[in-house]
Amino acid sequence: MKGWRDGVMGRVLVFAYPLRWRFVGAGLLAAGTEAAGLGLMAAATWLLATAAGQPPLIALSVAIVLVRALAIGRGVLRYVERLASHDAVLRMVTEVRARIFAALVDRPPARRADALSRMVSDVDAVQDLVIRVLLPMAAAGLVAVAAVGTALFADPAVAGVLLAGLLITGVALPLLAARLARHGSARLAPLRAAYAVDTVDLVHGAADLAAFGARPAYEARGRAHADELARVERALARRSFAVDAAATALGGVTAMAVLATALSRGLPGVWLAVLAVATIAAGELALSLLAAARKGAEIQGSLHRVAELLDVPETAVADGLPVPDGSVHLRLRGAGVRYRTDAAPALHDVDLDLPPGRRIAVVGPSGAGKSTLLALLTGAISPDSGSATSLPVATAPSRVGVTAPPGAGTPITAFDRERWPAAVTGLLADAHLFHASVRDNLLLARPGATDEDLLAACRTAGLGDWVDAHGLDVRVGEDGAELSGGQRQRLALARAVLADPQVLLLDEPTEGLDPAQADAVLADVLAHRAGRSVVLVTHRLTGLDAFDEVVVLDGGRVKERGTQGWVRAHGG
Ligand SMILES: Nc1ncnc2c1ncn2[C@@H]1O[C@H](COP(=O)(O)OP(=O)(O)OP(=O)(O)O)[C@@H](O)[C@H]1O
Hints:
Layout: H1 8-13, H2 20-51, H3 57-105, H4 112-154, H5 156-204, H6 206-211, H7 215-264, H8 269-298, H9 300-310, E1 330-337, E2 347-354, E3 359-363, H10 370-378, E4 385-390, E5 410-411, H11 420-423, E6 424-427, H12 438-443, H13 451-460, H14 464-470, H15 485-499, E7 503-507, H16 515-528, E8 533-538, E9 549-554, E10 557-562, H17 564-569
Parallel strand pairs: 3-8, 3-9, 6-7, 7-8
Antiparallel strand pairs: 1-2, 1-4, 4-5, 9-10
Helix pairs in contact: 2-3, 2-4, 2-8, 3-4, 4-5, 4-8, 4-9, 5-7, 5-8, 7-8, 13-14, 13-15
Bound molecules: adenosine-5'-triphosphate.
């Protein structure tokens, strides 16, 4: 049977469970605030109506104190409620973000970018769900029950009319508003996306558009999307205005109906006034439910996306996972990778053996599957067929049962994801430089490294002269924007060299360098790695005579493989 935890809301709200008493407290405070407002209206009306009969002041004193207490109390309650609800929801959202972050770390890099934006913007929906949807609904529900209960004391028929009015304004109309908002979001989302794409193209591509004279056409397209967006937004705004107006009118109608019923039941005049005003106030409260219902509908998409990420099982505890030991032996057997079911596999039936100390160069045209092969070795992806394993392994006492039969090796993706990169890492295709100093960018790879270590790594990567001239404290800009393409690449390479893993993976490490520089840098890096494993991905066949094996990939398949002799025979 499906429990509440299986729904989208449930999958998000399980994070509220440990904080349930805080949320209950915040809900009661919110209900108290609304009840104080309603009580204030009722008490003030009673006071005015009673005072009109000029009774002795003593008869009014309780009501006077009550009005003052409710007026002050409402403000205080609202303040405390905001503190309590935001405190609870921020604690909850912190948990959600931590879980999403963990899920992102475990994702293949290619799927992270979209997921990262989810973490930033969609998680706000979790906050809105609690603060702007559930709490106002809970508060309005509690107050409505209290109002109908109080009216029941005065007269059951009056309570019945009030209940009917509140059900229409507080339940039926919000359901209608939510439906309209859902429909509106479905129409607006693609228009907003198109408009955002136009804007990004216009800003980032400004120079190219100007160069090719395409700016007017792009601007016209952006304007057309903006006009269409405005037109749809206006139409939707008109509809939601109609719902708001209907709710306000129904609030008035309910008040009149309550009044008429109270009159026909012969209730005293003061009570007539109190009931009429309190009903109008309760109707206004129901209006807040319209906003909550709309918000609830708007954030459905975000909640779905958050829930999808939360479905990724929590990373198993580190001490239960195998950790790479001092002699990693990587092996691919019949490994295949398929990114999309409707496309050819990116890798097909690939064998690779990388015992400690071996150097393999992977060459092939663009799109041959070279980076995909490296992604298998880093454990960023697992093969869809065949295996990607490590032999032999030092297996820490395992609680998760991932150890393979003897001889078959342990799947690379089964290793402790925190510790695998210490053994197998390098300069990968998506290497990122942080908006920090050269030193900070390098220290990521080895936090305890001395300046001498950093300078040595820079020299190995061919960045020695530049660092001697600029120092380690110079900042590199966002993703290395303040460096040239070649400097950027060499800094990323220096970081990989500094990490000094057992198996160094290099994806086009000398891209952006001229051929002579590229050969010199590669030779230095290989000299530095003497006796240790390297997997180099490259387009160029030169400088490969230092490799034990060259694997030629084409269309995801191993087309040829050979040893140093092969390279010489092919003009390397
Ligand atoms: N994240 C992804 N999603 C879908 N398809 C992908 C993804 N990454 C790669 N591909 C596809 O898989 C194939 C192999 O890509 P891969 O990046 O491994 O090639 P490559 O040999 O490294 O190319 P290049 O030399 O241009 O970097 C290509 O057809 C590519 O379009």
